């Protein structure tokens, strides 16, 4: 089941040796349970370099997100929560290294990729865009959803650099939990879209957690709630 991950590590190690390789970062998409896809394909890897806008398009079309964030029909919801986790730790070359900056993150991504019902990997996402990644992805979704995307309720952690009149920002994991639980209590509502930005929350104080620990805590929260969920992890452009 982990064959695709092993091939991914080998190819990234080869790319690391090429000094002329452009700066890229990986993205991973997974769903632990079936969420309406018509096939049972898993562990898909796209080896070509893609932009953040191309990533958004692939997540919608091949990843199946168009079924629940572009659809006007809330009653046919197959996913309770879709999460965009914007990281800042992992770059493409780091996946093949023995010594990880954040071992918990690498372990969580590997486990999620190899054990989920459906997973996709994008090893080479260009990080050179001037636009913030969260804004680029959301505008990419909107551009490929026609008019359906505007109806989504999007919430953010309070470290996200976004603005808007109807902006909902959440200050801690308890608030995210309340959001997930309330969404589960409304089976006819739309899929909740959560943007979890690098660093987590503004007021962690002394309880600063690594990115891997935050991702693990978020996954545990989703699992404990019983929510049907899918997560897109991608790297924040510097």
What does it look like?
By secondary structure, the chain is an alpha/beta fold. It has one domain (3-235). It has seven helices and eight strands; from the N terminus they run αββααβαβαββαβαβ. The protein has an eight-stranded mixed beta sheet, sandwiched between helices. α4 packs parallel to α7 (211-225). Residues 1-20 form the signal peptide. Keywords: Signal.
Protein structure class: alpha/beta
Number of strands: 8
The domain tally reads 1
| Largest sheet data | 8 strands, mixed
Task: Tell me roughly what share of residues is in helical segments.
Answer: 25-40%
Shape: globular
Q: What does the radius of gyration come to?
A: 17 Å
Distance between the termini: 34 Å
- Uncertain regions: pLDDT < 50 for 5+ in a row? none
Number of helices: 7
Q: Could you tell me the mean pLDDT?
A: 77
Signal peptide: 1-20
Keywords: Signal
């Amino acid at each position: 089941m982990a064959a695709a991950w092993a091939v991914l590590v080998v190819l990234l190690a080869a790319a690391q040796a090429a000094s002329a390789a452009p700066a890229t970062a990986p993205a991973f998409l997974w769903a632990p349970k079936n969420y309406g896809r018509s096939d049972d394909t898993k562990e898909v890897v796209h080896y070509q370099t893609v932009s953040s806008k191309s990533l958004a398009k692939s997540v919608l079309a091949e990843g199946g997100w168009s079924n629940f964030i572009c659809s006007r029909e809330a009653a046919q919801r197959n996913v309770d929560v879709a999460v965009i986790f914007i990281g800042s730790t992992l770059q493409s070359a780091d996946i093949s290294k023995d010594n990880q900056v954040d071992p918990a993150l690498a372990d969580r991504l590997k486990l999620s990729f190899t054990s989920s019902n459906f997973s996709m990997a994008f090893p080479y996402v260009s990080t050179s865009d001037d636009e913030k990644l969260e804004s680029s992805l959301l505008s990419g979704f909107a551009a490929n959803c026609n008019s359906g995307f505007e109806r989504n309720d999007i919430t953010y952690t309070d470290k996200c650099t976004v603005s808007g009149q109807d902006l909902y920002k959440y200050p801690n994991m308890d608030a995210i939990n309340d959001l997930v639980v309330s969404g589960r209590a409304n089976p006819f509502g739309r899929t909740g879209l959560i943007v979890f930005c690098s660093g987590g929350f503004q007021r962690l104080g002394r309880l600063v957690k690594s990115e891997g620990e935050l991702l693990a805590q978020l996954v545990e929260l989703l699992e404990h709630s019983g929510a049907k969920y899918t997560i897109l992890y991608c790297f924040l452009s510097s």
